[in-house]
């Protein structure tokens, strides 16, 4: 059975492993280097687990094993509208397709609603049709595309 819950201190090893996999996967995709930047697994986990940061770190379990993670932030957006932002959502390859990602996303959206968010945003890299389709399946719609031009 799958479930999503708040990450606990004893989940740090699993979260480190999963976030490392997520960063490697993102960096290998078009636009991934710009998304990841100079972030490291340790710096992100440290930031996402600090009280008062406004970020909630969730883990997804399947049959009692942590196989996914999601970081979500609630912050004031344009015109004072509180906006949720899915910062990272990753389920390890062997555990995909059993509902862990859906459980994580549903829990994150519920948390955003509790925080008074009017909208929840998530990012998909260019060409990442799987992520885009999964987000659309969770009720997300594209509302903004960001295009970049390198100047080097």
Question: Looking across the biggest beta sheet, what order are the strands in?
Answer: 1-2-3-4-5
Measured between the Cα atoms of the first and last residue, the distance is: 49 Å
Structural class: alpha+beta
What is the share of helical residues?
25-40%
Look up the CATH topology: Aminopeptidase
- Give the number of domains: 1
- The overall pLDDT average reads 87
Order of helices and strands: EHHHEEEHEH
Give me the Rg, rounded. Answer: 15 Å
Quaternary state, please?
single chain
- Number of helices, where a helix is a run of at least 4 consecutive DSSP H or I residues: 5
Tell me which CATH architecture applies here: 3-Layer(aba) Sandwich
Low-confidence stretches: none
Output the CATH class name.
Alpha Beta
CATH superfamily (homologous) name? Gcn5-related N-acetyltransferase (GNAT)
Largest sheet: 5 strands, mixed
Name the descriptors:
single chain; 152 residues; alpha+beta; Aminopeptidase; five-stranded mixed beta sheet; 5 helices
Descriptive overview:
A hairpin with a 5-residue loop joins strand 3 and strand 4 (82-91). The protein has five helices and five strands, in the order E-H-H-H-E-E-E-H-E-H. Helix content is 35%, strand content 26%. The chain has one domain (2-137): Aminopeptidase (3-Layer(aba) Sandwich). Strands 1-2-3-4-5 form a five-stranded mixed beta sheet, sandwiched between helices. The longest helix is centred in the first third of the chain and has 16 residues, at 12-27. The chain has 152 residues and is α+β, with helices and mostly antiparallel strands. The chain is globular, with a radius of gyration of 15 Å. It has helices at 12-27, 32-36, 41-48, 100-114, 129-137; strands at residues 2-6, 55-62, 65-76, 82-91, 119-122.
């Amino acid at each position: 059975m799958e479930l999503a819950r708040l990450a606990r201190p004893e989940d740090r090893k699993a979260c480190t492993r999963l976030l490392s996999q997520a960063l490697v996967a993102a960096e290998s995709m078009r636009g991934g280097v710009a998304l990841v930047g100079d972030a490291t697994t340790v710096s992100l986990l440290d930031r996402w687990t600090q009280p008062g940061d406004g970020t909630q770190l969730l883990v997804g379990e399947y049959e009692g094993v942590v196989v996914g993670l999601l970081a979500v932030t609630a912050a004031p957006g344009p015109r004072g509208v509180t906006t949720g932002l899915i910062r990272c959502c990753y389920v390890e390859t062997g555990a995909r397709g059993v509902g862990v990602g859906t459980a994580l996303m549903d829990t994150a959206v519920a948390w955003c609603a509790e925080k008074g968010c009017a909208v929840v945003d998530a990012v998909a890299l260019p060409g990442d049709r799987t992520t885009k389709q999964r987000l659309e399946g969770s009720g997300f719609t594209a509302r903004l595309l960001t295009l970049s031009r390198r100047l080097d």
